[in-house]
Design goal:
Blueprint lengths: L5 H133 L2 H7 L1
Length: 148
């Protein structure tokens, strides 16, 4: 049915435009719905991704905290061990120093006894020489010995 008069042609043309417009609006609605579904999926995936990232971050934080606590415990244990070893070494060194000091004192006492005996002999010899010198000068023993 083709419109024969102008008025019918205008109505037909308006009807085609309206139909085209309705089709375009329908297509746009479908595109908007598809876009909306796609955006919702993206947002859901983004939420899931962020949730997973936060869970991984929390898991890594807990693991890091465990490792830090382990290191602190280990450092404390090592510090206690080193302190004990240091105290033991200090005790050994002080014992050795005391032993060396005692040995030095004994050695010094022995040397003092030896020096004292040497000094006694020295003064005894000096005294003997003085006595002999006096005798030689006051007695005529030398003349007597030489004359024979």
């Amino acid at each position: 049915m083709l419109p024969e008069d102008k008025e019918e042609k205008t109505n037909w043309s308006d009807y085609e435009k309206f139909t085209d417009l309705r089709i375009s609006v329908g297509i746009m609605k479908a595109a908007v719905n598809t876009l909306s579904v796609t955006c919702n999926k993206i947002l859901d995936n983004q939420d899931k991704f962020l949730t997973r990232v936060y869970e991984d971050m929390e898991k890594n934080k807990k693991e890091t905290d465990k490792e830090i606590n382990f290191l602190h415990e280990r450092l404390d244990k090592m510090s206690a061990d080193w302190s004990a070893k240091l105290e033991s070494t200090e005790t050994k060194i002080m014992t050795e120093i005391k032993s060396l000091r005692d040995d030095f004192i004994k050695h010094k006492e022995i040397e003092n006894k030896i020096v004292t005996r040497i000094m006694e002999w020295k003064w005894t010899i000096v005294g003997g020489i003085l006595v002999l010198s006096w005798l030689f000068t006051h007695l005529d023993v030398v003349k007597y010995l030489i004359s024979k």
